[in-house]
Design brief:
The chain is α/β, with parallel strands linked by helices and about 280 residues long. The protein has a single domain (about 10-275), classed as 3-Layer(aba) Sandwich (Rossmann fold). Helices cover about 50% and strands about 15% of the residues. It is built from ten helices and seven strands. The protein has helices at about 20-35, 45-55, 70-85, 110-135, 160-175, 205-210, 220-230, 240-250, 255-265, 275, and strands at about 10-15, 35-40, 60-65, 90-95, 140-145, 185-190, 235-240. It has a seven-stranded parallel β-sheet with strand order 3-2-1-4-5-6-7, sandwiched between helices. The chain is globular, with a radius of gyration of 19 Å. The N and C termini lie far apart (about 55 Å).
């Protein structure tokens, strides 16, 4: 890659960097743009694996282990950056969970808060506390990874959709508030072949098989996202399912949601059983 691109040599903070899209984005930024990446996650063994896979580029990757859903951890992380004279240039909020498909009324309030804290408030905390530092960069940037669910609501995803739609709204408003001062991008990927369905419990295997036909390979999604960021795209919708959901929702919002949910129901997949149970 050309070292004339604004990303070259940038210092990047990435949440959820121990696996899936976060790990892939971190490694691609390091290998293609010589970025210095600070990965954030909770699993140290997985972080050590990232270091091992980077080989000769491993010095470009460091990590911090903490729960992104707790504000006090971001306060401490900001102090860590300041104490070590680290100037972050880019913040990528990628951490997230996909709750089990279910009716809204079946989720406990505690679980709803848990999902919102990870999918939405973690980005609120990181942006709020790191924004002043990032704005001092010569190439300030924030990228939030939402989901195709933020574009079109499906039955069984009320909590997930709410959290990602909130992240989408926050990103879009901040983008205009800081336009010309900081690049703020939004990524809405469709189903991607990662371990995001691990939270579906006993139905995780069925879930992966069910979405194989519309899923995008992780490496391909990573390449699309990093390419979009390198060109400072405001909105990145990747994956055939995401494009169909986004396009359909813009033209026929209620009908698209209704049709998609009906397809889920008639599929009779165990994954969606609780969503449509009377």
């Amino acid at each position: 890659m050309s070292n004339n691109n604004w990303l070259y040599n940038a210092t990047v903070v990435i949440t959820g960097a121990s696996g899936g899209l976060g790990k892939g984005i971190a490694m691609k930024l390091i290998n293609d743009y010589n970025c210095k990446v600070i990965g954030i996650a909770r699993n140290e063994e997985k972080m050590k694996q990232v270091v091992a896979e980077l080989g000769s580029k491993s010095a470009n990757f460091t990590y911090q282990l903490f729960d992104v859903a707790k504000e006090e951890n971001w306060v401490e992380f900001k102090k860590y950056l300041e104490d070590n004279n680290i100037q972050p240039d880019v913040l990528i909020n990628n951490a997230g969970i996909l709750p089990k498909f279910n009716k809204f009324g079946n989720y406990t309030i505690d679980y709803i808060k848990f999902a919102m804290d990870i999918n939405f408030y973690s980005a609120v905390y990181s942006m709020h506390h790191l924004m002043p530092m990032i704005l001092k960069s010569r190439t300030p940037a924030i990228v939030n990874v939402a989901s195709s669910a933020a574009l079109c609501a499906l039955a069984g995803t009320s909590v997930y959709t709410a959290s990602k739609a909130a992240l989408k709204g926050l990103t879009e408003a901040a983008r205009e508030e800081y336009r010309g001062k900081c690049y703020i991008g939004l990524v809405c990927p469709g189903f991607t072949k990662t371990d995001i369905f691990s939270g579906q419990g006993e139905h995780a295997g069925t879930a992966n098989k069910a979405i194989d036909m519309v899923s995008t390979a992780c490496d391909s999604m990573v390449s699309k996202i990093v390419n979009g960021i390198s060109h400072k795209r405001d909105l990145m919708v990747f994956g055939i399912d995401a494009k169909l959901m986004g396009g359909g929702n813009r033209l026929f919002a209620v009908q698209t949601s209704k049709l998609s949910s009906k397809v889920m129901e008639i599929s009779k997949l165990p994954l969606f059983e609780e969503t449509f149970k009377d």
